[in-house]
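task queued by scheduler; priority normal; single chain, no ligands, no partner chains; default sampling; output format set to structure tokens
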Amino acid sequence: MYGLIGRIVAHPGRRDELAAILAPGAGGMPGCLSYVVAEDPENTDALWITEVWTDQAAHRASLQLAAVQAAIARGRPLIAGFDNRVETTVLGGIGLPTA
């Protein structure tokens, strides 16, 4: 399984607006096993996104989905930057299939 953990920093005061776009996820993303949006308790403008996919190809393919493209277009103006991004090999966890 392929994992991705990243922190997105919104423009000042825009985190909640960005979270509202990202938190529902795009729904129906083939290969997506987990997609979590969380507030950063130490930075009032930052969100952490934690994703688990069947594989990296499924993640790449999701970026071409119309719903994902629409969410990116709506969210992009709210984003000040990306300051952390880590790719992982997921071994398992609650709610995930065994590797």
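post-processing summary
- DSSP finds three helices and four strands in the chain.
- Strands lie at 2-10, 32-39, 46-53, 79-89.
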